[in-house]
Amino acid sequence: MGGMLLVVILSGCGLNVPADPDGTLDSVRGGTLQVGISPNGEFTVVGDDDTYSGSEVALIEGFAEELGADIEWTVGSEETLVRGLEDDRIDVVIAGLTDATPWVEKTGVTRPYREATADDRSTQKLVMLVPIGENAFISELETFLSEAAGESE
After folding, report:
1. Do 63 and 33 meet the contact criterion of CB atoms below 8 Å apart?
2. Cα separations (Å) of 16 from 81, 98, 111, 135, 149?
């Protein structure tokens, strides 16, 4: 009850909950989604001719379309892409990452959106990386991923 009252009060003050301190969602909507991609099997494939495919590429393309955004791709290692998140040069990283990612201390991490079977037959939960604190952006992305997962089942 108290939480709802706080949301109502803050809404009346012109504050949006959740918020993006750096305005990621606002800059991406109708603009450009900066996507960091690191090749990883069926999830993220980088072609020799600067083409991109894979299950996570398809998801991000759908997300960008929903936001009316163009995509600018940055290919790199996970470490390079995490630095891009930290420096506000990248909005989201896709790389077939799991919820056991070592980058959790340096980035925001989506809720797991899908399960995959690893080579050792264990079940892994897939996530994407986003800038820390950009809560409206991550909320929008997680909502999209949840809806996309529901469509594929």
Report:
1. yes
2. 29, 30, 21, 10, 27
Domain membership of residue 69 (yes or no) is: yes
| 5 found inside a domain | no
DSSP class per residue in 106-128: TSEEPPP-EEEE-TTS-EEEEEE
Q: What's this model's pTM, rounded to 2 decimal places?
A: 0.86
The SS3 of residue 144 is: helix
Q: Check: CB of residue 77 under 8 Å from CB of residue 129.
A: no
| 118 located within any domain | yes
Cα→Cα distances 121→5, 51, 124, Å? 47, 30, 9
The answer to whether residue 125 is domain-embedded is yes
CATH at residue 52:
3.40.190.10
CA distance 7 to 17: 7
Domain containing residue 31: 23-148
Indicate the number of domains in the chain.
Answer: 1
Residue 151 token pair: 């469509």
For the chain, which residues score pLDDT lower than 50?
A: 5-11, 153
